[in-house]
Amino acid sequence: MATLENPSVEEAAEFIKAAVSEHKAIILVGNCWVNYKGRASSKLEPGERIVMIKDDGSVLVHRPSGYEPVNWQPAGCMFQTRVKEGILHVRAVRRKPSESVNISFDCVFLVSAMRLIDRGEFSLHASESDMQRAILVDPTLLEEGFKPIAYEKKVEPGFVDVYGVDREGRLVVVELKRRTAGKDAAMQLEKYIDFLKTVTNRELRGILVAPRLAKGVQTILTSLGLEFKALEPKRCAEVLHRSESRKLEDFF
Amino acid sequence: MATLENPSVEEAAEFIKAAVSEHKAIILVGNCWVNYKGRASSKLEPGERIVMIKDDGSVLVHRPSGYEPVNWQPAGCMFQTRVKEGILHVRAVRRKPSESVNISFDCVFLVSAMRLIDRGEFSLHASESDMQRAILVDPTLLEEGFKPIAYEKKVEPGFVDVYGVDREGRLVVVELKRRTAGKDAAMQLEKYIDFLKTVTNRELRGILVAPRLAKGVQTILTSLGLEFKALEPKRCAEVLHRSESRKLEDFF
Hints:
Two copies of one chain form a homodimer.
Chain A: E1 2-5, H1 9-21, E2 25-38, E3 40-53, E4 59-62, E5 71-73, E6 78-84, E7 87-94, E8 99-114, E9 122-125, H2 128-137, E10 147-155, E11 158-165, E12 171-176, H3 183-199, E13 204-210, H4 217-224, E14 227-230, H5 233-242
Parallel strand pairs in A: 12-13, 13-14
Antiparallel strand pairs in A: 1-8, 2-3, 2-8, 3-4, 4-5, 6-7, 7-8, 10-11, 11-12
Helix pairs in contact in A: 2-5
């Protein structure tokens, strides 16, 4: 790990070139402006930012606030670093598709290069109740046009996970499973539908939502006129994490 | 801007406390593990990472590779920093919804705190051709179940932007505009539909895709039996930027 504070742009350029050739991770802080050209294009006017170049050739430009980077490139960039007329230009180029990010600094506050070792595993957990909340926050997780009208609705055989109306006005009953859904889940859903048929004349749809179905369950669903929608708990966790801090009650 | 290299966990803790109270941005590099609990939960095993705390109280944990953070929190976190049995714990807490990220370090390589000023404007540009490519990459931008079958299809009055089939098997003709769509765009789409009616008996849908409609254009669309789908060029640019490096030809 090596660090330079307030280097000249020439010192920073030499430092970055060496670090890139050694595939080190680099942190660069200074006053910069950014131009992106590739799939679409963007322009960022001058300001003080934190730039991260990772050991896989991905790049992130972070403003002092906001959790999202203002510019970024995925892994696999090639880097061109040079100084021209007192300006340090770091250019990250990808070939397929052809695109480039140009980051230009007139002043560098800090540059640090490091070799980091990280083999730690990451595990993300979402419960069925998390999946339920995710669908209420973003009903398109189920399907376009779906409007939830209740959650944990009491029906005769128990509680329906999510209950709503599809874009054609049909009632929709959703049964959620966070793991592979088996025959039990299909039968449970069928029970709810059977009960609802006795209390409404409206057209009904039953949807089993789970990351995947156990063997043979698709056949059961089809024979019962029920549907399956694949949904990963991980995707739900991400939706929840990104969602604004609204309460469940706000949706009803 | 202040930086400590290889501080003890106690030195790092004091440094971070002071920087947080002054609402400075902080970069922290070291060996750490992370636990998140809130909307869903996650666990990250030990490894060497770069942690960024921004001046608005957002937090990012970055592994040495991959452009996405492995853990993150949006703006508005409160921070609790303490050392217990030789371990530095930085806890970022949000109240609404209640969630917390605990980052624990047994070794700190670098900690840097800075006050950055950034008022630079960011502008992102996507052309109609970018929007077209984005829909081919992710057809759900148009609607769930849409399957593109051609792009820039030649029909009598000119070229259709995107041409495909919806989930009910109806033919779909899409006219794209990157700015407010006016009467012209509606009439252009109607021309394509009129022509296609002369060559096919299949049911046809015409969808005008644009960020918004000019005044009165919704009425025209409705009277012609055409539809409108709101789509921001910015959203298309993001989809393209995130998409893997596949060629347009791969979709046909």
